[in-house]
Amino acid sequence: MELVGALLCVLVAGLLFFFLRGDSDRYGKMPPGPTPLPLIGNLLQVNSKTPHDSFLKMSEKYGPVMTVYLGRQRAVVLLGFDAVQEALVQQADVFAGRPVIPLIEKITGPYGLILSNGERCKQLRHFTVSALRNFGMGKRSIEEWIQEEIKYLLEEFRKNKGSLCDPTMILGHAVSNVICSIVFGQRFDYEDKLFVRLISLLIKNVQLASTPFAQLYAMFPALIDLMPGFYNQMRENEKETREFITKIIANHNETLISDSPRDYIDCFLIKMKQECGNPATEFHLENLISTVSNLFTAGTESTGTTLRYGLLILMKYRNIQEKVQKEIDTVIGQDRLPTMDDRRKMPYTDAVLHEIQRFVDIVPLNVGHETTKDTIFRGYTIPAGTMVMPVLHSVLYDKTKWETPDSFNPGHFLDENGCFKVNPAFMPFSTGKRICLGEGLAKMELFLFFCSLLQNFSFCTKEDPADISLLPVSSTFIKSPHPYKLMAIPR
Question: Where on this chain does heme bind (predicted)?
């Protein structure tokens, strides 16, 4: 009887939520959307593996701005270039917040750069952008670090002597070493056991965070305590990563020279000393550890996955690979490494790289946003603190902005004369005040790594190119290709 009574209470509470949700003045004028069920909201209407596809289907009925309930979490979903641009750029301040993600906050606390809000976000983002610029973000010094890493990357592929190999860890190590050079002031040997372990932990946690189970934690935080196994695995992985970062910070502290910072950690430690008398400072050890972890993860996973996806695409479309190689041979030749100055002379290669980023659509849902104050958007009232999902997939595949959005087509970025052209709907790094602050670094890495690899190797598999699948691994957050092996044939 007690169990029946408890279930009835839950049902009544759910029904009250259902019937009263539209009566509130606060939420009564929100965008339209599918009718939610008690407690679970619209979960039955959302494909947990490809939620962006479900949202696009819903938008056919409810339009590009709609309200969806993910469990009890009310979210405004924005679809298409016009709606996303209007919110994130034209009303940038209002849509610049980040929602609380219980799983992540329970693991890392409310610290760091990516998911912070208010003064913490403002101070850490401004400081980080400034520090990275001082160490060459978009400048020649970082270009030289990438070129140095390219030598190690090429050697790793040469070791395989044209035999089949999995490029995942090779590319991951190369990309990670670039951010390590900036943040830690050092690179690691590809065979370094600790480095290999850290990359494995990073990849594993990103994979875990992209599973439907992680999304259930976000919608029903009580599951973290009721079913903690999944959470414990992520926590242990993150704990090991943070212990590594903490040791490096301690070593930096012991050898710090205040007027001669070597890397990002040194810059942060110097700022900590300058603000030691400020009780409200955001420059403290917890924020340093979390921000370094943010940079390490973001600086490795997305660029490494884009490189891996890009090579798969070029193996499927060998004619495109050969055309890029022809442009590389004409502009760069075989006697030197590529430089960023070469990009403006290589419109076709630049177009292919942009199309790779558009087509692979690494983060289809985008990182969640949140309104910072009550606002009127397209005639609808959206209260402060509302989760907002500006779906990047809907922008990168917007049929009104791309000639053949579902096909890989470098012509999306070429004019009638074969010159590179900009498309405002190209926003794989998002846009507005929360645009990825590593955009400049990522673009530099992609150009230099791809050009160097195709300058030195032709990539193929034993599989017929027509049989190569470009479908991603099912994931709610980050898209990645299915595991594959390739042959790097020296040119």
Answer: 436
3-state helix, strand, coil in the chain (%, to 5): 55, 10, 35
Residue 340 DSSP class? G
Cα(86)–Cα(468) distance, rounded to whole angstroms?
38
Q: What are phi and psi of 140, to 5 degrees?
A: -65, -30
User: What fold does the segment set 110-361+397-490 form as a domain?
Assistant: Cytochrome p450 (1.10.630)
Sequence-distant (6+) residues with CB within 8 A of 183 are 263, 264, 265, 292, 295, 296, 299
- List binding-site positions: 436
- Sole residue written with tokens 């693991």: 107
**Binding site for heme: residue ranges?**
436
Amino acid, single-letter form, for residue 258? S
Rounded CA-CA distance 413/250 in Å is 47
Q: Write down the pTM of the prediction.
A: 0.91
By C-alpha distance, which of 114, 117, 124 is closest to 96?
Answer: 117
For 27-44, the pLDDT digits (tens) are 679 999 999 999 899 999
Q: What would the DSSP string read from start to end of 37-48? A: BTTTBTGGGS-S
Maximum Cα–Cα distance across the chain: 82
Helix (H, G, I), strand (E, B) or coil at 382: strand
CA distances 69 to 42, 74, 75, 88, 230, Å, are 5, 5, 6, 21, 24
What residues does each domain of the chain span? 110-361+397-490
Residue with token string 């690691």: 188
